[in-house]
Design brief:
By secondary structure, the chain is an alpha+beta fold. It folds into two domains: 33 residues; 104 residues, OB fold (Dihydrolipoamide Acetyltransferase, E2P) (Beta Barrel), CATH 2.40.50.140. Helix content is 28%, strand content 29%. Strands 2-4-5-7-6 form a five-stranded mixed barrel. A hairpin with a 4-residue loop joins strand 4 and strand 5. The protein is elongated, with a radius of gyration of 24 Å. The termini are far apart. It comes from Bosea vaviloviae. GO terms for molecular function: heme binding; metal ion binding.
Amino acid sequence: MTRKQRRLVLIGAAGTVLCLAAGLVLFALRDTIVFFYGPTEIAEKGVAPGTRMRLGGLVEKDSVVRGPGQRVVFSITDSRTAIKVSYDGLLPDLFREGQGVVTEGVFQGAGQFRADSVLAKHDETYMPREVADTLKKQGHWQPDAGTSAPQAAPTPQVTQ
């Protein structure tokens, strides 16, 4: 074998090993990838029961029901569709009706979602990008919602 042929074989073998490694990584990650959906997207796409996902939107007004222990049932809406979420555990301190949340869990079908975790916005101006994008698509985005700090008056310009 000539020097050129050895190089080509080495490059081909390295490419094959690299492709094999990438395939194994993707195969290993396929069960841990979690997609984000809004309530309307779930209804439109017909997501299969048992699918692990993230569900985000606004906590619907008058929907929070606390059960025995730490069980909480509430609805997440994007103003067109609502999905009932059940969660066992402590809710974040900033969780309340009308706030943006992202839940991660399993869609159970028929408008039911079983959450493993609930994430609420962490200050007055933050909202997860996926939730904000969904609300913008629906026409319900209020970029100044929740900000109560008064705007400073403009500084007058002095001319001489």
